[in-house]
Specification:
The structure holds 2 protein chains of 2 kinds. By secondary structure, chain A is mainly β. Helices cover 0% and strands 50% of the residues of chain A. Chain A is built from no helices and 11 strands. Chain A has strands spanning 5-7, 10-13, 19-24, 31-37, 44-50, 53-57, 64-68, 74-78, 87-94, 105-106, 110-114. In chain A, strands 2, 4, 5, 6, 9, 10 and 11 form a 7-stranded mixed beta sheet that branches. Chain A has a 4-stranded antiparallel beta sheet with strand order 1-3-8-7, with no helix packed on it. By secondary structure, chain B is mainly beta. Chain B has strands at residues 3-7, 10-14, 19-26, 30-38, 45-50, 56-59, 62-66, 70-75, 84-92, 100-102, 106-111. In chain B, the strands form 2 sheets. In chain B, strands 2, 4, 5, 9, 10 and 11 form a 6-stranded mixed beta sheet that branches. Chain B has a 5-stranded antiparallel beta sheet with strand order 1-3-8-7-6, with no helix packed on it. Classes of the chains: A mainly beta, B mainly beta. Chain A binds chain B through residues 4, 6, 31, 33, 35, 40-45, 48, 50, 55-56, 58, 88, 90, 92, 94-109, 111, and chain B through 4, 6, 31-32, 34, 36, 41-46, 49, 51, 87, 89, 91, 95-105.
């Protein structure tokens, strides 16, 4: 059983460019959340997708947008990249309808460097 | 505002020297508290979920406990391979898919 997979693993972009990161959730999971993790910090919640809609959003500007496809996979798009967007971007998948089994499983992340 | 604070920021132990990591939280309606392990450059690896005060869970040399205001991750006789950053996170609200709020982590280093 494949876990959460993210692509690409590393990416270098120039300020002002746009980037798209991809995530395939763990088999059987229907909810995808995205996190940004700066060096030495804990992951910060960006947003969450379920049933192809954004359900919750953290304190991130509109430059950050996303999409979820019918097969539950997801994309994170960031426009007008800033140097401060350099971070490890993590995707986590979970199951929405389980009452107690709420743990999220994370992918290995995409390391984005903005130069 | 929901908040998670972990201490210490960093901890260096000798192999075999037991210790505890602390996670203090402020949240309305705790649904679950999670512990994750994260190795450098990798995604967090799930360790435990705790749901209510008094609950304890164990896995090999790790034991997690929960009170109404904090959680502890006890490490007994650690080995060098236990070196990693340990993240605490809380989930609040009614939905099983509510957002998860992380602390900044404790960087644990075990010397042989």
């Amino acid at each position: 059983d494949a876990g959460v997979t993210q692509s690409p693993t590393h990416l270098i972009k120039t300020r002002g460019q746009q980037v798209t990161l991809r995530c395939s959730p763990k088999s059987g999971h229907d909810t995808v959340s995205w996190y940004q993790q700066a060096l030495g910090q804990g992951p910060q919640f960006i947003f969450q997708y379920y049933e192809e809609e954004e359900r919750q959003r953290g304190n991130f500007p509109d430059r950050f947008s996303g999409h979820q496809f019918p097969n539950y996979s997801s994309e994170l798009n960031v426009n007008a990249l800033l140097l401060g967007d350099s971070a490890l971007y993590l995707c986590a998948s979970s199951i929405r309808d389980r009452v107690l089994n709420t743990e999220a499983f994370f992918g290995q992340g995409t390391r984005l460097t903005v130069v | 505002e929901d908040q998670v604070t972990q201490s210490p920021e960093a901890l260096r132990l000798q192999e075999g020297e037991s210790s505890s990591l602390n996670c203090s939280y402020t949240v309305s309606g705790l649904r679950g508290l999670f512990w994750y392990r994260q190795d450098p450059g990798k995604g967090p690896e799930f360790l435990f979920t705790l749901y209510s005060a008094g609950e304890e869970k164990e896995k090999e040399r790790l034991k997690a406990t929960l009170t109404k205001k904090e959680s502890f991750l006890h490490i007994t006789a650690p080995k060098p391979e236990d070196s990693a950053t340990y993240l605490c996170a809380v989930q609040a609200g009614r939905s099983s898919a509510s957002k998860i709020i992380f602390g900044s982590g404790t960087r644990l280093s075990i010397r042989p």
